[in-house]
Design a protein that fits this description.
This protein is mainly alpha-helical. The chain has four helices and two strands. Strands 1-2 form a two-stranded antiparallel sheet. A hairpin with a 2-residue loop joins strand 1 and strand 2. The longest helix has 15 residues. The protein is elongated, with a radius of gyration of 21 Å.
Length: 93
């Protein structure tokens, strides 16, 4: 029994077979098609914290005081570097 086009679209991903990426032959990837399908389905879901902080956690955060400016700058730099990532490992929409 042949799959319908809709069933084929649900079961096939671009990661199932070797493919050409910028002139290089890339092998099928791990995770498998089911993990990829679940990840793609999760893109449309709302993501939020699993819970609010406890009073003890809020108190500990307040007690820690202000963030060291050098730490804040390093964090900002890391975020920008991640946003501008290129090459292997880059996820393109």
């Amino acid at each position: 029994m042949a799959e319908s086009d809709a069933e084929t679209a649900k079961s096939w991903t671009d990661q199932d077979e070797a493919r050409d990426v910028e002139g290089r032959l890339m092998p099928p990837t791990v995770p498998d098609r089911n993990a990829i399908r679940e990840d793609r389905a999760a893109l449309d879901q709302e993501h939020k914290a699993d819970r609010m902080p406890t009073p003890e956690e809020e108190q500990a955060a307040d007690a820690a005081g202000p963030v060291d400016p050098a730490v804040a700058e390093n964090y900002k730099e890391a975020m920008e570097r991640g946003a501008n990532q290129e090459g292997e490992g880059r996820i393109t929409p």
